[in-house]
Amino acid sequence: MKTSERAAATPQGKISAKKPKSAKPESRLAMVRRARRINRELAEIYPYAHPELDFRNPFELLVATVLSAQTTDLRVNQTTPALFAAYPTPEDMAAAAPEDLEELIRPTGFFRAKSRSLLGLSQALRDNFGGEVPGRIEDLVTLPGVGRKTANVVLGNAFGVPGITVDTHFGRLVRRWKLTEQEDPEKVEAEICAIFPKSEWTMLSHRVVFHGRRICHARKPACGACPIAPLCPAYGEGETDPEKAKKLLKYEKGGQPGQRLSPPPDYPGLPAPPLGGAGAAAGAQDAGA
Question: Catalytic annotation on 220?
Fold first, then answer.
């Protein structure tokens, strides 16, 4: 019986995840086995996991990822339709008046700095890459405003090149699960890459982020509603009562809209509202957890 099945089979849905205290620390082999089991369980819990930024091509994903810094994917998704209608190609965006671009991306915050990055990367794509987003990390990180995290998002989801994206959610969950003690994103990436097969890197990133946004919240994780609680050394840091924990679930797990205005066909939740639409403010607040 799988972990998720055992959790569902316990009386009143309660999860028994207390672990006997051991004098011995977890071995490297045991940790790797537990980590891979967590990944398998997350794959069953979130078979529909996906990048939560709306995009139709590599350029749109690149721009959306740059805009997602210090804001929510929901806010980006509510902002980009008008942005891409005005500037659908790198050439178009490279020629944009800075004040016009700033006004369009203002809802995402830090709009002046982000405008400079978008103008710079669009001009670089136009001048150095023939107006096409390159498919190599070495090239992507030369673009203004693009680091390894953004590059891995683009490579994994627009080009099918495996990569681990260490955002805030990913970093805190792998530390909560005791898979790494590193704080630096590049060191986290290196240590987690060593645990999992390369073929799993991109989807692992999506599953972990999905879990962090829906169940394993930063301030109050819903431990009592977590299907992988028996595998988590941090069980008990959050609400363990199943009924109370259930009220903490978000997005499709809590019956609320997701972050994408245009989610994939297999997404079981509701699409997010457009900018200014009903429920937009509540969705934006939930997205930050």
Answer: no
